[in-house]
Design a protein that fits this description.
CATH topology: Alpha-Beta Plaits
Strand content: 25-35%
Number of domains: 1
Bound molecules: copper (II) ion
CATH architecture: 2-Layer Sandwich
CATH class: Alpha Beta
Order of helices and strands: EHEEHE
Number of strands: 4
Distance between the termini: 17 Å
Shape: globular
């Protein structure tokens, strides 16, 4: 288990950050999701490192271009 932070673009309101949070929480192995709307980032715990790439891909696909 490790704590990671990714950068997320295009979030403009609480609906956006809610969508990002929901998207991340739906991924098995990801927990403790905290989305920082004004800071353009999200922090969460991952069971294994490959989940970070999966999280970046899922959030990007949801319309919020993300990067590690
Ligand atoms: Cu929004």
């Amino acid at each position: 288990m490790s704590q990671v932070t990714i950068t997320i673009n295009n979030m403009s309101c609480s609906h956006c950050s809610g969508m990002v949070k929901k998207t991340l929480k739906e991924i098995a192995g990801i927990s403790d999701v905290v989305v920082d709307l004004s800071g353009k980032k999200a922090s969460f715990s991952v069971a294994k490192d490959s989940l970070v790439d999966q999280a970046v891909a899922a959030v990007t696909q949801a319309g919020y271009p993300a990067s590690r």
